[in-house]
Amino acid sequence: DEAGRGPLAGPGGAAAVVLPPELFIPGVTDSKQVPEQERERLYDVIRGQALCFGIGIVDERTIDEVNIYQATIIAMERAIEALSPQPDYLLLDAMTLPRIAIPQKSLIKGDCRSHSIAAASILAKVTRDRLMRDLHRKFPHYNFEKHKGYGTKEHLALIQKFGPCDAHRRSFNPVAAMLKEAGR
Predict the structure, then answer these.
(1) Is the model's pLDDT at 181 over the cut of 90?
(2) Which phi and psi (to 5°) does residue 90 adopt?
């Protein structure tokens, strides 16, 4: 599963998880439905109980160069390539990966229908949130720690006040419009 397709700033990420077939981890569901502190706790539980997991990250410039959909595919491919051993079959959340030779099935709302996709959604979200906290330390006046790069009212006001920084996705509106208006 992926995390970070919609934000105006920061990287995109994906995670792949192979869980033992009989394993059920209470609380694991779509990461968007899990409070942040609980996601952090589950992150450690999932990593500790997974047979293997992989993380894939794409930076802001890659997102700008290839578009968010293609960047998401790259992140997912990286996450799958990091799995060792490689799985025999993939369950994907509403995606297909034509460059991956492993047989696969795309599930709409997969993070609600598959325990392994839900676990991957938590790993991807926590990893990306941690990267956004790192960006907050580098660019504290944008308050990335709070909104994680999403286009909140506060974030939009801060972009308006300070202009975009290197962490902003230049191909995403309203950042793209602001840069065009400024002649950059």
Answers:
(1) no
(2) -115, 135
